[in-house]
Amino acid sequence: MPPTPTLTPLPYQVVNAFAPTPHAGNQASVVLFPAGDPRSTDERYLQAVAADFNLAETAYLVPVDAEAEVPVYSLRWFTPAEEVPLCGHATLASAQVLFGLHPAASELAFETRWRGTLRAHREGELVRLDLPIADVQPNTDVRLGAVVASALGFDEKDILRIGVYDYGGPSPVVQLKPEVDLGKLVFDRSKLEDKIPAILVVTQLAGTTGDGALKANARVFDPILEDPEDPVTGSAWATLTGYYLTGLGREDAQRAVGDRRLEDVPIDAHQLSKRGGGMTCRLVDGRAHLVGRGWRTHRGELEVLST
């Protein structure tokens, strides 16, 4: 019988991801396990620690082949309430941490439970993520527009279209007219929490930037969380990259950029939450490449606690 491994304190870092300034963006805690640590597969432990951090997501890293030219780690994401299938900002935070531990590496690989192998690339002080794009289908629930309009306090006539994709459950993408002041809408959780199984993405186009990028805004809500608005949501922006450049929102995006080939146009993405944040999104070989910055705010150790 193999000996029981000796447990040691676990290093962690907290990173503000997709943040234009140090105190913006979305916070994620990143916990690094040694290989073979039994806590890395203990679901109750992982969930309890995520609840202790009480941030939007906690990322857990376990080395698979850390000495390779492209270091490989397994990666899982937990909110304070549950494990999620994909989290962009916690992946960027994880890459920020690991690039600090692997200064010679220009690329990282993450093995995930539900989204295959994800890759991160170093671009100076920025990180570029390669993420899958969820397929957004036309909405068939005729009641959904009125429900979302009531929860956010806008006129249902301001909705251009609604799509739905799978993010651990049906998740609406609601595209609004450009003239709606999306940042000032006030969310009323009580009108939505039992009607949206997963998350709600509300988005709009806002013209183009001076260098020709397509400008887009979004806000993202998860009604089951204590704070229902997510500050910056990389997985949602991966989905919106496909939505605007090849999917349901393509015609609106094409009108905005004129006769340029839409698949070659970058998206200047802004999440209009209280903390705020953003990134640049591109479509590359059917996947979303998101470029943003992370800022480490603090680090420490998780003690070994007996129960």
Architecture overview:
The chain folds into two domains: 10-132 and 293-302, Diaminopimelate Epimerase, Chain A, domain 1, CATH 3.10.310.10; 137-280, Diaminopimelate Epimerase, Chain A, domain 1 (Roll), CATH 3.10.310. It is an alpha+beta fold. It has an 18-stranded mixed β-sheet that branches. 18% of the residues lie in helices and 37% in strands. One of its GO terms (cellular component) is cytoplasm. It holds the Pfam family PhzC-PhzF. Belongs to the PhzF family. Keywords: Isomerase.
CATH topology of the largest domain: Diaminopimelate Epimerase, Chain A, domain 1
Percent strand equals 35-45%
How many independent structural domains?
2
Distance between the termini: 24 Å
Instruction: Report the biggest beta sheet as strand number plus sense, adding barrel if it closes.
Output: 18 strands, mixed
Q: Structural class of the secondary elements?
A: alpha+beta
Oligomeric grouping of the chains: single chain
Please give the radius of gyration in angstroms: 20 Å
The string of secondary-structure elements, in order, is EEHEEEHEEEEHEEEEEHHEEEE
Helix-strand layout with pairing:
Layout (H helix, E strand, L loop, with lengths): L9 E8 L8 E7 L10 H11 L3 E9 L6 E7 L4 E2 L3 H14 L5 E5 L5 E7 L2 E6 L5 E2 L5 H9 L6 E8 L3 E7 L23 E9 L5 E8 L7 E2 L3 H12 L4 H8 L9 E5 L5 E8 L2 E6 L1 E9 L5
Parallel strand pairs: 2-3, 4-6, 11-12, 13-15
Antiparallel strand pairs: 1-2, 1-18, 3-4, 4-5, 6-7, 7-8, 8-17, 9-10, 10-11, 12-13, 13-14, 15-16, 16-17
